[in-house]
Design brief:
Elements: H1 11-50, H2 62-72, E1 81-88, E2 95-101, H3 104-114, E3 117-118, H4 138-143, E4 147-151, E5 154-161, E6 166-173
Antiparallel strand pairs: 1-2, 2-6, 3-4, 4-5, 5-6
Length: 174
């Protein structure tokens, strides 16, 4: 009869230890993935702060939602959809445009928050962009009642097309 060695482990104990090893490996892998995701998100946030993105081709991106909050001084309400943003930052003057679908209450809240007034200049500003965008409807803008505000060299315009429930916002330097 042999004497059991102190190093021998019974089969059930070995299975338990092996299972614990897998569990802890899975936990390490999940923790590593979570950390990696947080780092990527923080890097994207920093990049967005330094070089803000304007997604003129893809609606409802996180970048466009950030631009909405940045330019309209409010987070996009739940009813905001098909949100597009555009930037023309070439040259000394910059132009930024946003277009989105929403209820009239959102448009009223933006007008109030930004202090926009019915435009009485009679200049019939067209809101034309340097680069044509399919979502920027010049015909709808031309027939909509404009709201505007000018602060120093910065002008802001807002139009709402009640037929399509689309709101158009444009701000630019002069």
């Amino acid at each position: 009869m042999s004497v059991p060695s102190r190093c021998q482990i019974s089969f059930p104990v070995a299975l338990v230890l092996l299972g614990l090893g897998w569990v802890s490996c899975d936990q390490v892998r999940e923790s590593r993935q979570e950390l990696s995701q947080k780092i990527r998100q923080q890097a994207a946030d920093k990049q967005d702060q330094l070089l803000p993105r304007f997604d003129a081709r893809t609606p409802d991106t996180e970048s466009n939602r950030r631009r909405f909050a940045e330019f309209l001084d409010m987070n996009p309400p739940a009813g905001v959809r098909r949100l597009y943003c555009y930037a023309d930052e070439l040259g000394a003057d910059a132009t930024y445009a946003l277009a989105f679908e929403s209820g009239p209450a959102t448009t009223r809240a933006i007008i109030q928050r930004l202090g926009l007034q019915p435009d009485t200049t009679g200049l019939a500003f067209s809101g034309q962009l340097l680069v044509e965008q399919a979502w920027w409807d010049q015909v709808a803008i031309a027939r909509a009642k404009p709201y505007s505000k000018r602060e120093g060299r910065v002008s802001s315009y807002l139009w709402r097309d009640e037929k399509t429930a689309r709101t158009y916002f444009l701000t630019f330097d002069q």
